[in-house]
Design a protein that fits this description.
Pathway: Amine and polyamine biosynthesis; putrescine biosynthesis via L-ornithine pathway; putrescine from L-ornithine: step 1/1. The chain is α/β, with parallel strands linked by helices and 474 residues long. It has 15 helices and 21 strands. Helix content is 28%, strand content 23%. It is elongated, with a radius of gyration of 25 Å.
């Protein structure tokens, strides 16, 4: 394979390696201190296979806002997936990997004027609308746009409800908007809806598709020729979740209301494709032990663990996406389970990752993993207080490499054979170039040469500091 200087490469694993062995190899090298992700692109490929099997009529348009990692976009583009973009920045990122503009829907119902102009310049013609002002704006800035009217049909239970911000009422507002679009001479090509991110109410899709059919008929009566039905997002993606019930409801409704090849059905899955593909590894850098009162003989009442990522970084999902995370210690524990909490690295008291959980005793330098961290984490993460956003290491097994290595925009240059090369451990690219701007020059100068690292012990270097014991909290 050609050795290029791409900042990130996809490491092709051997038959004895997997995500967990890669995490252990990096974490236990004794050289890694910052948090990091391991992205398994095979997980994304398997999700796409599930989607095609369960929803054969529905073409996925990946919601870029969920996770705009460039490798993710390239892998999805190689799989032939379309893209749901919400801004000119997302449009540019998708176009930069060679995706045709016809494979993009500008699915933000409230668009700045400059973004509409940019969409017109880039020939991204299909866009959603849910109000009168947006129709007038598009008439002025992009009159040849293909308009998809977004209606509101909320799930009774959703991780992130969206109806309070977007979507017109399907019974009153939507017909009026169709009439206005006709008066303005605009081209309405379809209907869309979004039941809410992380939907837990499968029957809502049936109701929304029924409303869409009624509006299709109204549009036809007004002289439009609608052909696009966008059923939005809401599909779960964590390990152990399933879209089976949603798929059954959607397929039934499509058979009943849109049983024709003349209607192109798309969806906007985000977390479904990427949530379980990302695993986050964090390290305990500090620890505070709270002792009980005298009556309990000074026994440990609570352990407070401070890790190197928090709510201003990857765990912003706790605040903005209403997620619940489960810590998984990398080392097996023993002894008594102790009430514990996990905190992020910043100086803000809000920076709490897990409020109360029973954990075995852990020490400084121990690693804690968090699965299902691919959705609405990295795009929102910030370097607040000077703590870096975790780096992403990308892996795939040999079968995935053989499937994707010659499918554009991916090429063989994207892949490198080797589970965790020395340079990967050090935060360098395969060519030896520094891709970690947070590593200072003195630290780089002190890194051991590759021949020494090859025989590095499998346990972390001992810490020269200890944790602090405190009296009971008042």
């Amino acid at each position: 394979m050609k050795d290029t200087h791409l900042n990130e490469r996809i490491h092709v694993l051997d038959n004895e390696s997997n995500v967990m062995t890669v995490i252990k190899d990096i974490a236990m090298s004794g050289l890694q201190e910052e948090p990091f992700y391991v992205l398994d692109i095979g997980d994304i490929v398997r999700k796409h296979q599930i989607w095609k099997e369960k929803l054969p009529r529905v073409e996925p348009y990946y919601a870029v806002k969920c996770n705009d990692n460039l490798i993710v976009i390239e892998v999805l583009a190689a799989l032939g997936i379309g893209f749901d973009c919400a801004s000119k920045g997302e449009i540019n990122k998708v176009l930069s990997v060679g995706v045709d503009s016809s494979r993009i829907i500008f699915a933000n119902p409230a668009k700045p004027a400059s973004h509409i102009r940019h969409a017109a310049a880039m020939r991204v013609e299909t866009m959603t609308v849910d109000n009168e002002n947006e129709l007038h704006k598009i008439k002025k800035l992009f009159p040849t746009a293909k308009i998809v009217l977004r209606i509101r049909c909320d799930a009774e239970v959703a991780q992130c409800p969206l109806g309070m911000k977007f979507g017109c009422d399907p019974l009153d507002e939507a017909p009026a908007l169709l009439h206005l679009a006709r008066v303005l001479g605009l081209n309405v090509v379809g209907i869309s809806f979004h039941v809410g991110s992380g939907c837990q109410d499968p029957p809502v899709y049936y109701r929304a598709i029924r409303h869409s059919k009624i509006l299709f008929d109204k549009a036809i009566d007004l002289g439009f020729k609608p052909y696009l039905l966008d059923i939005g997002g809401g599909y779960p993606g964590n390990k152990g979740t399933s879209i089976d019930k949603m798929a059954d409801t959607i397929n039934q409704a499509l058979d009943e209301y849109f049983n024709t090849d003349a209607v192109h059905v798309i969806a906007e899955p985000g977390r479904f494709y990427v949530a379980s593909a990302f695993t986050l590894a964090t390290c305990i850098h500090s620890k505070r032990t709270v002792r009980g009162d005298d009556s309990s003989s000074g026994a440990i009442a609570h352990n407070m663990y401070y890790i190197n990522d928090g709510v201003y970084g990857s765990f912003n999902c706790l605040l903005y996406d209403h997620q619940h995370v489960t810590p998984l210690p990398l080392k097996d524990g023993c002894g008594k389970l102790i009430p514990s909490s996990i905190w992020g690295p910043t100086c803000d008291g809000l920076d709490q990752v897990v409020e109360n959980i029973l954990l075995y005793e852990m020490e400084l330098g121990d690693w804690v993993l968090f699965e299902n961290m691919g959705a609405y984490t990295l795009p929102v993460a910030s370097p607040f207080n000077g703590f870096p956003v975790p780096k992403v290491h990308v892996v795939a097994d040999e079968s995935i490499w053989l499937l994707l290595k010659d499918v554009l925009p991916l090429t063989e240059d994207h892949f490198v054979i080797g589970n965790t090369p020395t340079n990967l451990r050090l935060g360098l690219d395969i060519g030896g170039n520094d891709i970690d701007p947070w590593m200072d020059a003195d630290q780089q100068m002190n890194l051991a040469p590759p021949e020494i690292l090859a025989d590095a012990p499998s346990t972390p270097s001992p810490f020269i500091f200890d944790y602090v014991e405190v009296d009971p909290l008042n």
